[in-house]
Amino acid sequence: MTLPPVSTTTTYGPLDFARDTGVPRETLSRLSTYVNLLVERNENLNLVAPSTLPHVWRRHVLDSAQLVPLILPHATTIVDLGSGAGFPGLVLAIMLSDRPGPSVHLIEATQKKCRFLEEVIAATMAPAQVHWTRAEQIKGLKADVVTARALAPLNGLLRLAHPFFGPSTTGLFLKGRSLNDELTQAGKSWKLVATPIPSQSDPSGSILRVTGLSPWRKPRKPS
């Protein structure tokens, strides 16, 4: 799936999303159910900024869906940090539901958002489970892919993501215009292979693909 540039000045809806991503009708129907629930619940739950709702298919759904081509076919365990309203993790779960054995772990510390995520999972039969907790409190879960969107500056984000990394784990992080500065700061604490990929939904945004993540170790002082 190679997505064309999307104009931010025109209306972008589900048919445009289906055209650009090639999702089957059933997947589009599940995503539409998700979007409808988001719009219905947003006023009471404050899931996303109200100003973004007219652009939900580009701003939130497409922004999340562009990670799908970067997830290798053998990747089955995905950990989404700070899931919030479910972007990108719940979109990925719905779009990957035709793959054999996917499992998306949605980690969210706010109870009302967890209840919303569980409502969408029940309505769409997405292969996902919700963890009502902070990422720091989860132990022993290793992922093929770790994702996050608008959660924290990169240095702090890598600290949260590192416990979920194994030798072959890939991080896919949706970042904004401050990415270069964040990479400079993160490089002081972390060894990583970082590959910025231009966003298909936001001209000022990037997808940061991270592999080989490990902390720099300070040399021991001579005894």
Notable traits:
223 residues, alpha/beta, 34% helix, 7-stranded mixed beta sheet, single chain, 21% strand, Rossmann fold
Structure description:
This protein has helices at residues 14-21, 25-45, 56-65, 89-95, 111-124, 154-161, 179-186, and strands spanning 77-81, 103-108, 128-132, 145-149, 170-175, 190-198, 206-215. The protein is of the alpha/beta class and 223 residues long. The chain has a domain at 61-215: Vaccinia Virus protein VP39 (Rossmann fold), CATH 3.40.50.150. Helix 2 runs antiparallel to helix 5 (111-124) and helix 6 (154-161) packs across helix 7. Residues 4-9 have low confidence and may be disordered.
Structural class of the helix and strand makeup? alpha/beta
**Oligomeric assembly:** single chain
CATH fold-type name of one domain: Rossmann fold
> Number of DSSP helices?
7
Unreliably modeled segments: 4-9
What is the CATH superfamily of one domain?
Vaccinia Virus protein VP39
What integer value in Å does the Rg equal?
A: 17 Å
Shape: globular
Main sheet summary:
7 strands, mixed
Mean pLDDT: 92
Question: Strands of the largest sheet, in order across it?
Answer: 3-2-1-4-5-7-6
What sequence of helices (H) and strands (E) makes up the elements?
HHHEHEHEEHEHEE
What is the total tally of β strands? 7
Terminal CA distance reads 56 Å
